[in-house]
Amino acid sequence: MTSPVTHVIIGGVTLDLDDIEYQVAVQHGRNDIKSQPEASTAQIILRGSQGLDIALTDSVDIAAWGTTRFTGEVTDIGITHLQADPPVAITTITCIGNLSNLGSRITGASGYVKQTIYERVEEILTDSGETFLNGATTALELYATADAAQTCLDGLQSLAEWSGGTYFDTPQGVIVFESYGQRGLTTFAGVWSSLIYPWADYEQTWDSFPTSIAAVSIPANGVIFTPTWAQNQASIINDITVTHGDPPHSDQDEDAASIALYGRRAFTLATGLDKHSDATTRASEILLAQAYPLWNLGQISVYIDLLDEPTRNQVLGLVSGSSVLINGLPSPAPYTQFLGIVEGWSETYTPGQHILTLSISDPRYSYQTVTWAGVDAALTWGAVNPEIEWYNVVRSDDLVAA
């Protein structure tokens, strides 16, 4: 059977996939929006003697359908045997993406000046020595600190919590930081700022790049339908306190209607934000995203082999922050069509089969709701659904009465 894997290159040596038995699995991003971001990982299982020539820290490049799926290095090698005579070795190779390097790179040893989230992210990622894209907000400002030595990974984690955002490494090995509200914009191939490699590396014409950001629509015939819809009270925050400034001050906000429905569910976020106005903005964003329970679709698996080539190419371009539209969800369910944001994915390759499992979150968790600019200019108040609640308006169509 034809293999979907284009190549596996370890330590500069391309494995002969036609001559060995293998299994490849790749993990990108995180499982859900409340999980801590982690570096991409890959596991390669080989049957035969190939694994004996592989060394720790060897570079790893995995591609499928002609598209890079993982970039990183070898961290663990294990060899077992199915039998001794003749010997049949099974080598398991564990690999980790470039985001992991930030755990050993130091930043902030000279402290930080008063600066925006964007400027702080830029400084941290420059100190990391990795190739990166910075999609952080410029709207929030941090106070100055002295003696702030920390790892680059700890620095990004703090900024993501303080400002609302996430970070990940792409299949090509680029480190990305994105603030919520801007997800999917940083890696969008239709803008120059995301094209950080030499032009010759892209192997396509400019008119083949997308001109608008739209959700990738996944047809029902390619989806393995085992959705697990869930709501829970643990994710509700309707009373939020945000600390800011040095010395610290506190700003509190709440959603009275949510408190009446679900009881008071309070949370305090300690930040390095400087201004009162920034703290109140952060508080209102958290209430918008979490004052009411949202349906979580969980994970959706896709048979990549069953997709037509244009759809397959779009799906293989998904990274953390991309938007997807899952069609034809089985009833009964909260929705028969779900617009979500990719938090991560896992995929497995065997000869003749490629299954990709998407972890998807509700856009409101990432502050991705429709703005006035996105509403159809022809829509009149008389056509608006009178029962719609503002926190349920994700798309322009949500405003329209059924």
Summarize the structure.
The chain is mostly beta strands and 402 residues long. The chain has five helices and 23 strands. Strand 13 and strand 14 form a beta hairpin.
Structure report:
By secondary structure, this protein is mainly β. A hairpin with a 4-residue loop joins strand 17 and strand 18. Helix 1 packs antiparallel against helix 2. The longest helix has 15 residues.
Radius of gyration: 23 Å
Which structural class do you get from the secondary structure elements?
mainly beta
First-to-last CA distance: 48 Å
| Biggest pleated-sheet summary | 13 strands, mixed
Contiguous helical run count: 5
Count of DSSP strands: 23
Assign an overall shape. globular
Low-confidence stretches: none
User: Helical percent range?
Assistant: 10-25%
Beta-strand fraction estimate: 25-35%
What is the residue-averaged pLDDT? 88
The secondary-structure element order is: EEEEEEEEEHEEEHEEEEEEHEHEHEEE
Q: Which SSEs are present, and which pair or pack?
A:
Elements: E1 5-10, E2 13-14, E3 21-29, E4 41-47, E5 59-64, E6 67-84, E7 87-97, E8 106-107, E9 115-116, H1 117-128, E10 132-135, E11 141-142, E12 150-151, H2 152-163, E13 165-169, E14 175-179, E15 216-218, E16 223-224, E17 239-244, E18 249-254, H3 256-262, E19 266-270, H4 276-290, E20 298-303, H5 309-316, E21 323-326, E22 338-350, E23 353-361
Parallel strand pairs: 10-14, 15-21, 17-19
Antiparallel strand pairs: 1-2, 1-5, 3-4, 3-22, 4-7, 5-6, 6-7, 8-12, 9-11, 13-14, 16-20, 17-18, 20-23, 21-22, 22-23
Helix pairs in contact: 1-2
